Each structure stands twice: as C-alpha cells, then as structure tokens.
Amino acid sequence: xxxxxxxxxxxxxxxxxxxxxxxxxxxxxxxxxxxxxxxxxxxxxxxxxxxxxxxxxxxxxxxxxxxxxxxxxxxxxxxxxxxxxxxxxxxxxxxxxxxxxxxxxxxxxxxxxxxxxxxxxxxxxxxxxxxxxxxxxxxxxxxxxxxxxxxxxxxxxxxxxxxxxxxxxxxxxxxxxxxxxxxxxxxxxxxxxxxxxxxxxxxxxxxxxxxxxxxxxxxxxxxxxxxxxxxxxxxxxxxxxxxxxxxxxxxxxxxxxxxxxxxxxxxxxxxxxxxxxxxxxxxxxxxxxxxxxxxxxxxxxxxxxxxxxxxxxxxxxxxxxxxxxxxxxxxxxxxxxxxxxxxxxxxxxxxxx
Length: 353
Ligand code: KG4
Ligand code: ZN
What we know:
With 353 residues, the chain is α/β, with parallel strands linked by helices. 44% of the residues lie in helices and 17% in strands.
C-alpha cells in the first residue's frame, strides 16, 4: 500500500510517501527559526506558515518519490491532538486531495504516528505486545500495544502535569536558553557533571507508571533562585533525572507485562541520554529496545503515513467530513483484571508448575 502522510499538528509542515515501511519521498519544513525569536510556538503564526508551505511540501515529497497522484492508494493526515489552526490546514488539504484524487482518507492520531516511526525501514516491523513510551512536547504516555490497530492501545501511565518536552522547554526558559529547550539543554549538558547538582526523584504516585515533572521544575527554579549552580551541571542533572524517571517506569512496565519490546518515540526520544539510559536498563532486563533515528523522532510525514496504513487496514477510511481534534480522548487505562498483571501472571504460572 502506497500512502501519502501529511503532518501539520504543531510547527512542522511535512509530507511523505511510504510503501511497505520504506520512505519513497519526504519533506519537512520546520518553523523553529520563526518561533525561536518569540520564545515558543505562536499558534496563529504557525497556521499561516502551514498554509504557505503545505502545497510545495506535498509536491516536493511526490517529486522525490517519483510517483504521480494516481499511484497513491491512501491519503493519511494527523487529525489530532495538536494546535487547532495548524491541524485545520493539514486536514483540509488532505480532504481536498482525497476528494480530488478519489482516494480514501484516513485520520491519524499524532501519538500513534510517533510510535509507527519506529517501524519504518531500516528498522524491522513493530512487534506486539509492546510497551511504547511516547515523549513529545505535549505528551508523556506509557502505552501498551497489543497490535497495530488504533483500538489495540491502552495507557498504563502518563504524566500528571508537564509533558517531558514541555519540562525541557520550561526549564530551558528558566535557564535563559532558547526554544526548543530539549536540544539546547542536551547541548549544554554535554559539558556538565550530573552529580554536581542534587535534584529530587519523583515521589510515590498512586499509579506507579505515572510520572510528574512539576516538582523537578520547581527544584530547578529554586536552585537558580537561591544558589548559583553551574549551568552545564544543572542541565546535565536535569537531563539524567528525567531520563531515569522515564527509563525506570518503561522498563518496569515492560518487564511486568512481558512486552516483546520497548519502543521509545516522540521529539524527546532524540535525546541521547534518554536513549542510552533506556537502552541500558532494557538490556539489563533482556528486553529488546528500539528507537527511531533522531530525525524521525521529531514530527514528520513518514510516521503519519506508516500509522495511516495501520489505521486504514484495521478500521477502513475516515469520512470526508473529518474534523481536526485539538484534544483527543486519552487512550483508556486497562480495566482492572483486564490484561494479565504481574501478580495475576505469577499466580497462573505457579498453578501451572
Ligand atoms: O514530537 P515533537 O517534535 O512535537 C510534539 O509532538 O510535541 O516534540 C517536540 C519536543 C519539544 O518539547 C522539544 O524540546 C523536545 O521535543 N526535544 C527534545 C530534543 N529534541 C526535541 N528534548 C530533549 N532532547 C532533545 N534532543
Ligand atoms: Zn509530535
């Protein structure tokens, strides 16, 4: 199946053509340079830029792939979550293409797009059940995936406040670093010693797979206000703290549920410390781990095409009166006793012996 994927949920206008996990052509136009001077993404400016860029971006992707519109089987587009004005541009454009080309339209959940980025070549196809940690600017979700369909997803844990990327961005702002904060903190942290600054671990939460970053952010603000930490040490300590909180939960969830692999994805997955920490923790438990190349961690059209194929295969086309959904219903938590938990599995295993 040859799928055109369109992504405009935030500040990247992107399109790609994907067939059997192979990206035939792709184009990403980032607005970061525009928003950096304004301290963050300005929604009104973002949607106007998407409007200017969307047609040339799609055309470039098609040209690069060397395919004509008649060779496209499905048009996939991010329908949410994201900024309403930004989503509206991509969804309207995709609807027009699907109608004009007489091809099915399929709506893609942006978070599942991030997951499917990890199934693009050169990585092998995704395997199930798996534990996916999606860490982006707006989300931090520990997802339990039992298959490729959007219906085969449950959320085991999530952030109770800031998303990991949001925490990076806010801490960077506190430290006077530019937007986006993640890459800026990562760069500064390379010269720092994480053990030189004490930052608190996240305390006990009711759901042990949930995470919270607001206390950590406040601790950074207090350190900056009341002492004069070395900025590189502080950046390194913050990065390691976030990475360890995420790695411990992801690996514990994967181990307890017997995931066949751990998938790390989303913009923050571009962070080398996070990649390394999860890789090491997963290897120690003998759990396979995968993460897309850094360029496929941030928003791109190829991931939407890949997730679009999975959604279309499982659920068929979306209606042409599809509307963008800035806020998407969160994935459901597992029903108590629904999927086998750790204790239940132990009991069953004990009975079998
Ligand atoms: O997935 P993404 O590109 O957009 C959303 O869907 O939100 O994620 C953007 C987030 C930003 O918060 C950015 O600071 C963070 O990803 N990010 C990073 C790195 N690169 C991007 N965070 C930590 N380290 C990085 N290298
Ligand atoms: Zn994203």
